[in-house]
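Lecture 7, part 2: worked example. A protein chain together with N,N-dimethyl-L-histidine.
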Amino acid sequence: MTAQVVLPVADAVLDQVAAAVRTGLTARPKSLPPWLFYDEAGSLFFEQITELPSYYLTRVERGILAAYSRSILAQAGDKRGLRIVELGAGSAFKTRVLLQAAIRRQSSVVYEPVDVSITALEAACQSIDRDLPEVQVVPRVMDYTRELKFDSAGASERRLVLYIGSSVGNFEPNEALHLLRRVRSRLRHGDGLLLGVDLAKDEDTLLAAYDDPERVTAAFNLNVLTRLNRELGADFDLDAFAHRVIWNQAASRIEMHLESQADQAVHIPALDLRIHLAQGETIHTENSYKFPRGGAEALLSAAGFTPVASWTDPRHWFAVTLGQVE
Ligand code: AVI
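Predicted complex, written out as structure tokens:
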């Protein structure tokens, strides 16, 4: 059973896009924030990425959740009911194993998926309604990086917030800490946060995950320019940019860039802005931080949670770690 999805004000989103693009493209080096990827087409590209053979993250995390869902839920809650909140839920595909385990444990469960993409939330609601009718879905169209409100929980309920999929890795370390502290401030004693992080590993595996031979990640990266052309009237020529991926060992992060293939000027009428790009100059579009083992525990502790357990795969490629509010 699903509550109604509330549409955000489109003008407010457009203002945020305009402000972010002006800041990023007038800075040196040029950059764009990764949240711009997720328009309707970008969200679909991302769904395709999660199924690519080289993009191991989703598959490995799903394997961890499938293998350990019972033990995760046992650690997260006592015999009282758990409400499951998911930040950046997307299609909620990975979450199903946890929801199924929760139904086995407590016969029904409330699931609050939070996402900025209405399309992704609608798809998630429909498929969960169809396949898991015991789950009461309470969707929230919300940008959790700007606002964070949860439905009120009963006194006897515990909330388990899922922040999985390595999404925390797309924030700068100080922003990630700030975000988790904010989540912590909304929770009560006994509530938990389940954090999924990608772990540092050999460079070839990391590069392949973000530079697939199918070129889906390239299309995902370039789609941000299509979005600026459509929403701000810009005249980016997509053929004049190339998808570039770098492993920045010192910072322990994968970087995605769009590299200008020529000296060129781009006009963005909605911002009354003309920018110049030299051949080889890049627009930095995303960082994806890779954690050392124990890094998630350190982050959770710094944010005010007590790390209680962590689960990983046999190669230690990915970790899912539970922090609790004492
Ligand atoms: C959403 N996020 C965790 C993805 C990642 O791996 O950093 C976004 C992505 N970028 C390129 N491929 C996937």
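The two ends are 32 Å apart (CA to CA). The CA atoms of residues 116 and 143 lie 5 Å apart. Keep this in mind for problem set question 3.
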